[in-house]
Amino acid sequence: MAKDIILIGAPIETGTHLAGCRMGPDALRCAKLGETLEALGNLVCDWGNLRVVPEKGPVHPNKAIHDLDEIVAWTKALQKKTAEAARGGSFPIIMGGDHSLAMGSVSGLAQVAKEQNRPFYVLWLDAHPDYHMLETTRSGNLHGTPVAYYTGRAGFEGYFPPVTAPVSPKNICMMGLRSVDDAEHDFLQEDGVLAYDMRAIDEQGVSKPLQDFLENVRDTNGLLHVSFDVDFLEPDIAPAVGTTVPGGATFREAHLIMEILADSGLVSSLDLVELNPFLDERGKTASLMVDFVASLFGKRVLDRPTRPAHGPFMS
Question: Which CATH number is 233's domain given?
């Protein structure tokens, strides 16, 4: 089914420690994200890249934290823009930028779900759970805190805007985890987040856990947001990320997830985050991400052009 898609650029890199993510939205445009979605029959409108002007706020006692004022400004801007797009009935795709953008995108979209009296779910495809609170982050990189923020955990009050529609941790499914700090591990267990690390995926595959999660979304008439971090993938196939962790999802596993999501028809919004073109190889990762998005919107492997083959299956 064709969708009305709005592209929103969020060139944020201050949530991480390495420059380059601010070029992510434009790299996705260069890889023809908009044109690819239009070729699949969708209507695409690009709202361009957001800009923010940080305001001076209180200083957090955790001295490791950096660029707090800027991340707060991005959170406010993205809450407003994603909610505006969703209220108009569109499918927002937020192009990052580092994963701190989810503080704004997820909380804004969850507010719209609350207004519609529908439960809100998040599929978090990431090597990291990003479940630190402001006081527990040792790196001070705020791309490690969005899930704690949008689930309404304590400690963000007075620094970030209030979370008016906290996402229930039990409505979150994390897949691909393989780098989890001790504090995050404790929070995940306390809150009952559905979390599948790469060992679980190796043992069970991606289909059964994902289908079980989607069944809950469907049964409750929920809205589903997908937050796709480049480091969810195996670094060999997606090198353009500053937080590489070996042992990630394969090309086929990622495509299968996207195809299952497309079949479900349940996804209503999407983050594409942590793409750092400075670390890429001739646009390899940006093109791969566009390919995965195409699968999410219904393109199938058999739709893709293949090289001539030898043998009985050659046409």
Answer: 3.40.800.10
